[in-house]
Amino acid sequence: MLPRAIPFASPFTSTSRLTLDDDLGVPEPVPKPKPKGKAKTPPKYRPPKELPQLDEDDLEEQFVRGSGPGGQATNKTSNAVSLIHKPTGTRVFCHETRSRETNRKLARRTMREKLDELFSPPGESARDLKAQRERQKAAAKKRKARRKADAKSGATPSEDRGVEGEPGEGELMQDER
């Protein structure tokens, strides 16, 4: 008697599903059940805001002597950068490193950030958007910690604090006072 042959699906065939004969006794794969509960949606992706480009003709750059800690070398070299944006009169001074080139790059980045804050509507500058994202992350972390504490203590989320906007036990609404 010959052994039973199991059909083999080549990865190069156009059929993506392997079908088995019923007489072989091999069951069809059972599809996985869909998870129950709230479906998780991916977080909204907002690419970082582009800072305005600087036109080199609008900039006036000076290299001045640095000051502060660092001793004689800091006081003797002209590696601090003073950058002025002519159309707006915005001035930036940078002496964060001992390198003149690094200070030039940092001064230009700071100038772009200042111009972004100057020309963007309130709350729309890159710095404001970053602060808003940080506040949202902190609030989400706080909510998660509160839910975890409630689950650990066995209390329901609406027991003491009340549902958002509704008074809890011992609290009165403004109209009832």
TrEMBL record:
Residues 33-43, 138-149 have a biased composition (Basic residues). Keywords: Hydrolase, Mitochondrion, Transit peptide. GO terms for molecular function: peptidyl-tRNA hydrolase activity; translation release factor activity. Pfam families: RF-1 (PF00472). Residues 72-81 have a biased composition (Polar residues). One of its GO terms (cellular component) is mitochondrion. The keyword Manganese does not apply. This is Putative Aminoacyl-tRNA hydrolase. The lineage of its organism: Eukaryota, Fungi, Dikarya, Basidiomycota, Pucciniomycotina.
